[in-house]
Design a protein that fits this description.
Blueprint (H helix, E strand, L loop, with lengths): L10 H7 L2 E4 L13 H6 L5 E4 L8 H10 L4 E4 L19 E3 L8 H19 L21
Parallel strand pairs: 1-2, 2-3, 3-4
Length: about 150
């Protein structure tokens, strides 16, 4: 049991109180379009949205409407829906919008770590062990590879 400062809240309360909203959930049916007109209406007009997860978590047209109406101050998007955004697109060319090419994770240090860890993960799988970072642990009992 860990003592964590803070208090439990729901999404809409968090949106009302936050200046920076960084959405990082997995893309599953319940999170698809979770940042929609209703969510943007709950945000402060001084708030910024950051999406480094999956593009479809944000309803792109709702985001454009929120920016046009001044309901939020801006956004930073490392992923969009669709990806890439067509050119022209209403999100492109705005001073309050930053769009990166789904590569915000990249740095020399991150690349070295990725390259150094990949052979170990392959070795684990080839010797019958599970990778360290299995995302969907439910597949362990269903593996066709016999792991």
């Amino acid at each position: 049991q860990f003592a964590v400062p803070g208090e439990k809240t729901d999404l809409f309360e968090m949106l009302r109180e936050s200046v920076f909203v960084s959405v990082l959930p997995p893309l599953v049916p319940v999170t698809r379009g979770m940042m929609n007109d209703e969510a943007f209406a709950r945000m402060k007009p001084t708030a910024f949205l950051v999406n480094c997860a999956r593009g479809p978590i944000v309803d792109t047209q709702a985001l454009v409407r929120a920016l046009d109406a001044g309901r939020i101050a801006g956004c930073a998007l490392d992923t969009t829906d669709p990806e890439p955004l067509p050119d022209p697109h209403p999100l492109r060319g705005r001073e309050n919008v930053t769009i990166t090419p789904h590569a915000a994770w990249y740095s020399e240090q991150a690349m070295v770590g990725l390259q150094a860890g990949a052979p170990d993960e392959v070795r684990r799988v080839l010797t019958g062990a599970w990778p360290v970072n299995v995302v969907n642990k439910a597949v362990k009992g269903k593996s066709r590879a016999g792991l």
